Amino acid sequence: MSETKQFPIFLNLADNNCLVVGGGRVAQRKAEALCAAGAKVTVVAPELTQTLREKADSEQVNWRAGRFAEADLHGMTLVIAATDDKDTNKLVYEAARRTGTLANVVDEPQLCDFFVPAVLKRGRLTFAVSTGGASPAFAAHVRDGLGREFGPVYGDYLELIGAFRRRVRESMAEPDRRDQAYERLFASNVLERLSGGEEIDVENLVAEYAL
Prior knowledge:
Elements: E1 17-21, H1 25-36, E2 40-45, H2 50-57, E3 62-65, E4 78-81, H3 86-99, E5 102-105, E6 118-122, E7 125-129, H4 136-149, H5 153-171, H6 175-186, H7 190-195, H8 202-209
Parallel strand pairs: 1-2, 1-4, 2-3, 4-5
Antiparallel strand pairs: 6-7
């Protein structure tokens, strides 16, 4: 498989309509991930896993029982094809090309406009690892390694950094001085202090590293 050039981005899918074609366990994982991102998810499949059926019953996802039709793509931001039928998956991709819908066909990298990375979240800090479809298992392996290196405290650290940044931007007009304040904070032992359970007030950080 030849390497293709990719542009890595994070999509804001809040309240966007997204389609999942398929009702098995893989489709379930994709639908759950889209729901977690705030998307409005429609699942098209003759049958669903028990979990997906429960989500449909509770209106967490919309279910259209039946086989995929091109009309299902109307108004969709993206579509993920996750059936065990290659012909159906190819049909989804070809319909997406005609309608200008971003498409991902599971386990068929040549039929993908985007790849779903292996994701690690630490609060608002997000790591996304992709192999461009070459080996999703290796992407997951790398993600798990990152998870061991970057523990949950990094989420708290990011919140503290964000608050520090807001205070600094309010009090300093010069970009160079702001950058110097950030670098002093990053080079400090604040992360280690948080890891040790210390509660740190952002105003004290501003006084220590920005003034």
